[in-house]
C-alpha cells in the first residue's frame, strides 16, 4: 500500500516537473513571439508598444517628489498611448544596492538614479550609461540647468545624467530655543558657535540634531569645517592630484575643531545609533536647536511642527579662515539612461519631457527650493515660507564650494573616512591618527 | 532502502527536486563566491584576477577582520551557553508544570517577531537618557543614575547589548526544542528509576540530561550556525557601528562588498565564513559523537 502511494506521488511529481519544463518552454516561445511582433510593428512607425522602466527614489506618496513624478508620468502616458512607463520606486539605500546588483549582470533599467562625480564614475567607466549630449540639446533642455551643474555628471565631455536638484549645506536653527538660551544673533565665527552650543547645553537643550548612524551626516558637517580650515574649496581634489596629503595641517585642524564641537556636547546623546530620519525629527519636533543639513530639508521643516519658527544661517568661519559664502555643495541624485536600453530613443524623448516639465511641477508643489534648474516665478507670491525665501536668498550668494567626501573619493576610501568620523562621536581621538588613517586608506586604494 | 522495497529510481525522483534547489541556491553560489574571492572586482567594471591577495590582506592587514571574528565567535559562545539553561528549564517544566504548552508558546513569541521590529524595540529600550531610553529610565528611578549609559553607542557595551537581545529572542526557540526533546523520553524509564530510588534532580541527572543529548546537539548546531551568520539584528540596531565596534564577519562582508565596492574582497570574507562554518560543524559533530557514545 505504502509503496503504491509512493509510486503515485512519484508519477504526480514527475508530471509536475514536466509541466514546469513545459511552462518554461512556453515563456521562451512567448518571448520570441514578442520579439517578432515588435519587429513587424517597428515598420508602422510611431505606434510601437514600448515599456520604459523608470527606477526612482520617490516611493513615499506623502512627498511632493512622488506627486510630481506621478503627475508627469501620467500626463506623458496620456499623450503617448503606445508608451507605458513602469515605475520601480525604492528608497535610496535599496535603490543603490539594486542598481549595483543590476550593473553586475549588465541589466540596468532604462532610467535609473545615480549620484554625482566619483559615485557614478564606476558605472560610466563600465559603459553602462548612454551619453545624453544630443538629448539635452533638444527643446533647449540644456539651458534650463544652472551654469556648471551638469559638469558633475559629465565625463570626457559627455553628459551622462541629469540632476533632480542642487542643494547647499546650511544651518537651520529654532528661533524659540535660541531665545530661551539668550542667544540674540546667529554666530558669525566657529568660536561664537561653540559658545552658543554651550549656552544651549546649559539650558538643557540639545544644540544640534544629527543622525550619525547614517555616517554621511557627520561627514557632511565635518567637510564644512574642512572647507573653512582649508581657506576655501579643493582640499580633496588637491589630495587626488597629489598636491596635498591628509596629514597636512588643514586637515588635522579640521579634525581637532570638529572634535571641539563634539566635546562641547553639541550633538544629541548616542548620536551614532540614531538614523537620519530620527535625527531630523529631533529638530522638527523642537527637541533640538539646530540642524546642519542640505537645503532639501526646507520643505519638510516648513511642514513640521516647528515650521515658522525656523531660521537659517551660513556655516561660520573657523579660526578666522574661510568664506561663509562658500558652501558644501550637494548636486542632487540624477537620472541616467541605460546604454543598453532597448528603446533608447523613446527613453530619451521621455526623459527630455520629464526634465523640461519638472521645475514647473516642483514649483507648483512648493518643492522648488534647491531645484537644479532655473525657475521663473515669484516664490513669495506663490506662497513659499519666509524660510524658503531666506534659503533662496543664500543660493544667490553662493561663491563655489566642495562636494561631499563620497562624491569626491572612491567608495573604499570614503568608507574608511565615514567610520573614522563616526568614531569621533564615541571617543576622543588624536587628529594625527585620524589623518594617518585617511592617508593610509588613500594610499592603498589609489 | 531495501526495507521499503522502493526502487532506487523512485528515490532519485524524490530527492531530485530538493537536490536541484540545493545545488542551484546553495552550492553553485558558494562555488561562484570562491571564484570571485580571487578577483579584484568592484562588481561593475572588469575584474582582475589576483590570486590569493584578498585573503592575504584579510588575514594580515585588515584591522577590522580579527575583531569581527572574535565578536562573531563570542556571539556563538553566548548563544550556545544559553542552551543548557533552556534544557534545565525544560526539565523543570516537564516535571512541575501541567499543560506547559501555553508557557512554551509565550516564550516562543519573540521568535515569531521580525528581527527589524525586535531591533527597533530594543533600540528604544537601550536609548540614551536624553532620548527617553527605558533601561536608563529604570536605572534612574532606582537611584542608579551613575549606571546609566548610552548603551548602543559606547563601544564597551554595544556588542554585549546585541548579544543579550539575541539571547532574549532565541530563548523560546531553544526552550521549545529542548522541551519537545524532554517530553519524548518515555515515562517507563522514570518509573523504573523511581523504583530504583531516583527522583527529582537525581532522575534529571541520570536520565533526562543523558537522553536529551541528541536534541541538545541540534540546538547547539542551530545556535552556532545562526550566530555565525548574525547580520540582521546588528544591522538594524547599530549598523556595525560606532566605527566598526559591533561589526561581525557578515556585516564586515556587506560593508566591503556593497559599500566599499570591493566585491572580490567581500567574497573572500564570505569564503572564510563558509570555511569557519564547515570547520566548526565538523568539530561539533565530532565532540557530540564522543558524548553520545558515552551516554547512549
From TrEMBL, chain A:
The keyword Ribonucleoprotein does not apply. CDD domains: PBP2_XBP1_like (cd14749). Keywords: Signal. SUPFAM superfamilies: Periplasmic binding protein-like II. Gene3D superfamilies: Periplasmic binding protein-like II. Residues 1-24 form the signal peptide. InterPro entries: Bact_solute-bd_prot1, SBP. Pfam families: SBP_bac_1. This is ABC transporter substrate-binding protein. It comes from Paenibacillus montanisoli.
TrEMBL record, chain B:
Residues 69-284 form the ABC transmembrane type-1 domain. GO terms for biological process: transmembrane transport. It holds the Pfam family BPD_transp_1. The keyword Metal-binding does not apply. GO terms for cellular component: plasma membrane. Keywords: Cell membrane, Membrane, Transmembrane, Transmembrane helix, Transport. The chain crosses the membrane at residues 12-35, 73-92, 104-122, 157-176, 211-231, 263-288. It is a multi-pass membrane protein. The keyword Oxidoreductase does not apply. It is found in: Cell membrane. Belongs to the binding-protein-dependent transport system permease family. This is Sugar ABC transporter permease.
Amino acid at each position: 500500500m505504502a509503496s503504491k502511494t509512493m509510486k503515485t506521488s512519484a508519477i504526480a511529481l514527475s508530471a509536475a516537473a514536466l509541466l514546469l519544463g513545459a511552462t518554461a518552454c512556453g515563456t521562451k516561445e512567448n518571448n520570441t513571439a514578442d520579439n517578432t511582433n515588435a519587429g513587424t510593428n517597428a515598420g508602422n512607425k510611431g505606434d510601437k508598444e514600448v515599456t520604459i522602466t523608470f527606477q526612482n527614489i520617490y516611493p513615499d506618496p506623502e512627498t511632493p517628489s512622488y506627486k510630481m513624478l506621478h503627475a508627469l508620468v501620467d500626463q506623458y502616458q496620456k499623450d503617448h498611448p503606445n508608451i507605458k512607463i513602469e515605475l520601480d520606486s525604492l528608497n535610496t539605500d535599496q535603490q543603490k544596492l539594486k542598481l549595483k546588483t543590476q550593473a553586475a549582470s549588465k541589466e540596468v533599467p532604462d532610467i535609473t538614479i545615480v549620484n554625482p562625480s566619483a559615485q557614478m564614475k564606476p558605472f560610466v567607466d563600465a559603459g553602462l550609461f548612454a551619453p545624453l549630449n544630443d538629448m539635452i540639446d533638444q527643446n533647449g533642455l540644456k539651458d534650463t540647468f544652472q551654469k556648471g551643474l551638469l559638469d558633475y555628471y559629465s565625463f570626457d565631455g559627455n553628459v551622462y545624467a541629469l540632476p533632480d536638484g542642487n542643494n547647499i549645506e546650511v544651518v537651520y536653527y529654532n528661533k524659540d530655543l535660541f531665545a530661551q538660551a539668550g542667544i540674540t544673533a546667529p554666530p558669525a565665527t566657529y568660536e561664537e558657535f561653540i559658545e552658543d552650543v554651550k549656552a544651549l547645553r546649559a539650558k538643557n537643550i540639545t544644540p544640534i540634531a544629527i543622525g550619525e548612524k547614517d555616517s554621511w551626516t557627520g561627514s557632511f558637517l565635518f567637510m564644512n569645517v574642512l572647507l573653512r580650515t582649508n581657506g576655501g574649496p579643493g582640499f580633496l581634489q588637491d589630495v587626488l592630484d597629489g598636491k596635498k596629503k591628509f596629514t597636512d595641517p588643514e586637515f588635522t585642524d579640521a579634525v581637532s575643531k570638529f572634535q571641539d564641537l563634539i566635546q562641547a556636547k553639541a550633538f544629541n546623546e548616542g548620536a551614532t545609533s540614531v538614523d537620519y530620519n530620527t535625527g531630523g525629527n529631533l529638530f522638527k519636533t523642537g527637541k533640538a536647536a539646530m540642524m546642519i543639513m542640505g537645503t532639501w530639508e526646507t520643505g519638510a521643516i516648513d511642514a513640521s511642527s516647528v515650521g515658522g519658527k525656523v531660521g537659517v544661517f551660513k556655516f561660520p568661519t573657523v579660526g578666522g579662515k574661510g568664506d561663509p559664502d562658500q558652501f558644501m555643495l550637494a548636486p542632487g541624485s540624477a537620472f541616467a539612461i541605460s546604454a543598453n536600453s532597448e528603446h533608447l530613443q523613446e527613453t530619451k524623448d521621455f526623459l527630455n519631457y520629464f526634465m523640461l516639465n519638472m521645475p514647473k511641477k516642483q514649483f507648483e508643489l512648493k518643492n522648488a527650493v534647491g531645484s537644479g534648474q532655473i525657475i521663473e516665478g515669484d516664490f513669495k507670491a506663490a506662497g513659499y515660507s519666509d524660510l524658503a525665501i531666506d534659503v533662496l536668498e543664500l543660493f544667490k550668494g553662493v561663491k563655489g564650494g566642495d562636494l561631499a567626501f563620497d562624491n569626491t573619493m572612491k567608495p573604499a576610501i570614503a568608507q574608511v573616512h565615514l567610520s573614522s568620523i563616526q568614531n569621533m562621536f564615541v571617543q576622543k581621538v588624536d587628529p594625527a591618527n585620524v589623518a594617518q588613517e585617511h592617508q593610509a586608506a588613500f594610499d592603498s586604494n589609489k | 532502502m531495501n526495507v521499503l522495497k522502493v526502487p532506487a529510481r523512485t528515490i532519485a525522483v524524490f530527492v531530485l527536486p530538493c537536490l536541484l534547489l540545493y545545488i542551484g541556491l546553495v552550492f553553485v553560489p558558494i562555488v561562484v563566491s570562491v571564484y570571485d574571492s580571487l578577483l579584484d572586482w568592484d562588481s561593475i567594471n572588469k575584474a582582475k584576477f589576483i590570486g590569493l591577495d584578498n585573503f592575504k590582506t584579510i588575514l594580515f592587514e585588515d584591522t577590522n577582520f580579527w575583531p569581527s571574528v572574535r565578536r562573531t565567535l563570542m556571539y556563538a559562545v553566548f548563544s550556545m551557553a544559553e542552551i543548557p539553561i533552556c534544557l534545565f528549564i525544560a526539565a523543570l517544566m516537564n516535571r512541575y508544570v501541567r499543560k506547559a504548552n501555553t508557557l512554551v508558546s509565550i516564550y516562543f513569541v519573540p521568535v515569531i517577531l521580525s528581527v527589524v521590529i525586535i531591533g527597533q524595540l530594543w533600540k528604544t529600550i537601550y536609548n540614551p537618557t536624553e532620548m527617553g531610553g527605558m533601561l536608563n529610565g529604570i536605572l534612574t528611578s532606582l537611584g542608579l543614575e551613575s549606571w546609566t549609559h548610552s548603551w548602543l553607542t559606547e563601544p564597551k557595551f554595544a556588542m554585549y547589548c546585541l548579544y543579550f537581545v539575541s539571547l532574549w529572542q532565541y530563548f523560546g526557540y531553544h526552550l521549545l526544542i529542548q522541551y519537545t526533546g524532554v517530553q519524548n523520553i518515555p515515562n517507563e524509564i522514570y518509573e523504573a528509576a523511581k523504583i530504583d530510588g531516583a527522583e527529582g534532580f537525581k532522575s534529571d541527572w541520570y536520565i533526562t540530561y543523558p537522553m536529551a543529548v541528541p536534541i541538545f546537539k541540534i540546538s547547539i548546531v542551530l545556535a552556532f550556525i545562526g550566530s555565525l551568520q548574525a547580520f540582521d539584528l546588528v544591522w538594524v540596531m547599530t549598523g556595525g557601528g560606532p566605527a566598526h565596534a559591533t561589526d561581525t564577519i557578515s556585516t564586515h562582508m556587506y560593508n566591503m562588498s556593497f559599500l566599499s565596492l570591493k566585491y572580490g574582497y567581500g567574497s573572500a570574507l564570505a569564503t572564510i565564513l563558509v570555511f569557519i562554518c564547515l570547520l566548526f560543524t565538523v568539530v561539533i559533530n565530532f565532540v557530540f559523537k564522543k558524548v553520545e557514545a558515552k551516554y547512549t
